[in-house]
Amino acid sequence: MTADHYAALGLGANASLSDIKKAFRQKASFYHPDKNDAPDAAQRFQAVQKAYEVLSDDEARQAYDDNRRRNLLDDPLQTAQEIWQTYFKSILPS
Where is each J domain found (predicted)? Predict the structure, then answer.
């Protein structure tokens, strides 16, 4: 994962849905290729659109946040164990 969707919108990870919508409208308006002549405007506009798509969808945001946390953890062994435990709970009946 190379893009930080929160950074694309200029938000922190604890942003609410209304904050995400507001930041998207502002950034999309600013970076829209019809309004911004910068050479990277179209690329930034696409990054803002993708960030909004992910962060405005509850399931996609949860998956994105989980992946971010996994990548930032200090103990990869513990993370691996949690992933396996979750996996086995989902496939084995209780």
Answer: 4-68
